[in-house]
Amino acid sequence: MRPFPTPPRPALAGHLALASVLLLLLLAVRWPLAIAAVPLPSVLTGRLSPDLRAAGALFAATLLAGAGCLLISGQPLGVWITCLFLAVFALVLPGLLGLYLRSTSDLAQAGWERARTLNREAELRAERARLRESSRIARDLHDAVGHELSLLSLGAGSLEMAADLPEERRRQAGQLRETAGRAAEQLMAAVGVLRADTESAPLAAAGDSISELVRNSREAGLDVSLEWDDAPRELPVMADRALYRVVQESLTNAAKHAPGAAPRVLLWSTPEGVRVRVTNPVPGQGRGPRQVPGAGSGLLGLRERIRLAGGDLKAGRSGRDWVVTALVPVAEPTLPPSPGGEPSRTASRVRAAGGKPASEGDDRFGGHGASALHDVLWEGREVHIHQQVHRRTLWAIGTILMIPILMGLVGYTLLLLSSYQQAADATLTPEEFEQLRLGQDRGSVEAVLPVGELYRGTLAESSQPPDPEGLVCRYYRSSRELTTDYDRYRLCFDSVRLVSAEVLTWGRGRPW
Questions:
Q1: Of 240, 256, 353, which is closest to residue 303 (Cα–Cα)?
Q2: Is 3.40.50 the CATH classification of the domain at 426-506?
Q3: What's the distance, CA 510 to chain centroid?
Q4: In this predicted model, what pLDDT tens digit does every residue of 318-357 receive, in sequence order?
Q5: Is the sign of the CA dihedral 301, 305, 308, 311 positive or negative?
Q6: How far is Cα 358 from Cα 122, in angstroms, rounded to an integer?
Q7: CA angle at residue 284 from 278 to 285, to 5 degrees?
Q8: What is the CATH number assigned to the segment(s) 120-384?
């Protein structure tokens, strides 16, 4: 979100905004209402200024110049407080708001950059998992198919050496042995291509079965149950290894993320093939996407393995359980296209469960069709980033609101104290006023007068009567109470004596 979009030339706009602030402040000296137009360019200065230090220095210089003018002209404390409020609400707070908008924009840009980085990491992670699974498949092919080709070559060699066979049959057996040898060599070459990941992958022996895997897990302390529901025990190599990997990865995740739980493994036959379902209770409440069992790169490898076997894999929350379900055809698979529809080894898009793009109707928050990859790599980090931005935004808004409120309370308190002190210093009681006599010596009159007098600056010129020509007049109030009506006294002197003593009646709320 950008409350103030950055113009095409932000540097020039920042300079213009700063110049507008200075121009309006100069105009406010002659026309005070011009101060009302200062907040907008102040916000734009904080938002768009290319050099914040220069803008801050100019703002500080402006405030110091204003303070110097007030000091030279000898203005009372009330005028200082009024000018301070104007400076804070017209200059300082709008500038801080502009800085906040700048920070928000920078944070948004950093967030999008972070999202692009996470997207690249997710793509690389998905591709790495697929390559690791290709390495696993290559080893399985080497162990199973290579062994069968070796037996075929050995049998053909025996037939080639049999003396009771005709020469033509022995020659054909030799050709069969050579063909089997070449097939074994080509298999080794293909395995070398598939083994793109040089790291060792944790694999069980090719002959291990699901029953042996479950038995070993029980011996290791995992309370796992296995149910065979008319599922065939003998399966093609690809289907058998795919089902084995589903159970192996699910039990590994259960032991890692939900120790003490009781996983349940169920296999059954369907017209489409063999299905396996591993159900594991998720302990505790409020676990995030990155904490659920099986949420990791292992699921990526399983998806690649099941895809190459021609099947389908789904994983996600179902109530209080984490469920992994896979369908593997028993017939030899026809390999579907790789994710993204391209033969490239670099994933062009992270894909969700069932082979659909993550942006096309995936259930992000659970269920068997949920994209575990999207949940793991994105949702937890996205929630964390949103929470950080939300907290920072609340703090910034609270700070922006509380600063003027606190300053208003402090300023109001100072204004009351200043008004009370001024009233006390400029109070001439009615009794003291009645004792004054026209023609009285000026020195004797000044001896009984208060130390201060009422404010007579530019803000009061329009509401006070003009002084008599050639005389020096002083103004006082009849009471120091701020909430009651009072009279204003005007005493005028010539060079040596009191010439006039007048009572000017004013209503409540006058600035005297």
A1: 353
A2: no
A3: 53
A4: 888 899 999 988 765 444 444 444 433 333 333 333 333 3
A5: negative
A6: 12
A7: 105
A8: 3.30.565.10
